[in-house]
Write a structure and sequence with these properties.
single chain, nine-stranded mixed sheet, elongated, D-Maltodextrin-Binding Protein, domain 2, 9 helices
């Protein structure tokens, strides 16, 4: 239940490409007539001796049993095996929520296996434009989805988010707001300006009149969280849901609404998808009450 991304290609509920165990060919059996042994008994109407005939019969039975097991169409857990694959390209900030959504989606449609690629929204659009196979695209802003143009069909908003300052657990530097990020004593990391989280951070800092010299620019918002969690930076601007998803690896300092932005997340079917029906079903599930409940559980806001 794609396919997190989490920044590179990733996903969820997808046993793709598992190696098939191939049994070694049976050893050739040689029947020798030992000195003093009784002559081999032959079966009427056959040129095979009885021991050879029994061996052949056993091999035939084994082959039939193996073929029957292979045709059962069941997965390792005893459920029906997935017969179709759905590839979902999604913004990195959706990793945890979409992984849970895929689990519920595939529980309802076990014949579909969801494979995810989680990355920066801009990178995902670039990959699709270069011919990467994908069925659904979900971005962290409407601008990037607009940039996709004819690569997608029928974009629809499905969630919203806000930005927050990520700090080390316990907030050891006592950061209270955006103004503190301009201090030379605070190492700040941001998402790159072409990434939605980077665009939003630039907008927020500009609106607040705060000048920041980041120590690094990350290709995904998850990279910002990682830098702060590892102590390589003191603070970063991320989505509020990223702090929730960190599981305590970072804390959050709220950005007031008057200085904040509302990030709208759209999703759409990829025009070149060969699985339009399954893509439509996945989108419908995300927009359904069940999908919206999962998003809310992960801290996302309803789409405006």
């Amino acid at each position: 239940m794609h396919h997190p991304t989490h920044g590179g290609r990733a996903v969820a509920a997808e046993p793709k490409g598992e190696a098939r165990a191939t049994a070694p060919p049976p050893h050739h059996i040689r029947w020798r007539r030992r000195r003093g042994a009784l002559p081999r008994e032959r079966v009427a109407g056959s040129s095979l001796s009885r021991p050879r005939l029994v061996a052949v019969a056993l091999l035939a039975l084994l082959a039939a049993t193996t073929a029957g097991c292979g045709a059962s169409g069941t997965a390792e857990d005893g459920g029906p095996a997935a017969s179709r694959e759905l590839t979902v390209f999604a913004a990195a900030s959706l990793t945890e929520a979409f992984t849970d959504i895929a689990a519920d989606f595939t529980a309802a449609q076990p014949e579909v296996k969801v494979v995810f690629s989680f990355a920066g929204s801009n990178d995902l659009v670039t990959q699709i434009g270069q011919g990467a196979p994908a069925d659904v695209l979900a971005t962290a802003d409407t601008g990037t989805m607009d940039d996709a143009g004819d690569l997608v069909t029928g974009p629809r908003p499905f969630a919203a988010n806000k930005l927050i300052i990520a700090v080390a657990p316990g907030n050891p530097l006592g950061i209270t707001g955006l103004d503190d990020l301009s201090s030379r004593d605070v190492k700040v990391v941001l998402a790159a300006p072409e990434v939605p989280a980077g665009k939003y951070a630039d907008e927020i800092l500009s609106r607040a009149g705060v000048d920041v010299e980041p120590v690094s620019l990350e290709v995904t918002v998850k990279g910002v969280v990682t830098k702060v969690a590892l102590g390589e930076a003191d603070a970063g601007i991320v989505f509020a849901t990223d702090v929730t998803a960190s599981g305590g690896d970072v804390d959050g300092v709220t950005i007031p609404d008057e200085a904040n932005v509302v990030a709208v997340y759209p999703l759409a079917a990829v025009t070149a998808s060969a699985s339009a029906g399954d893509a439509g079903d996945f989108i419908a599930f995300v927009l359904s009450a069940d999908g919206q409940r999962i998003l809310a559980d992960h801290g996302f806001l309803p789409a405006p």
